[in-house]
Amino acid sequence: MGKLSQFASVTSASLEHFVFVPPTAAMKAARTLVLANLGYAPGAAPALNWGTLAAVLRGLRRASPLGRILIVDRLCPASSAEAIFQRIGLTDALDAEMRAAPVDALTRRAYPVPRTPPVHASSLSLPEYLSEFDCVVVVATAEAAAGAFKGSVSLLEHLLPCEAALPPRDDPQRYHDLYHTVAPHVDAAALEVRLSRDETRILSGSNLLALDETACRLLGQPVAEYLKAL
Question: Of all helices (H) and strands (E), which one includes residue 149?
Answer without folding.
Answer: strand 148-150
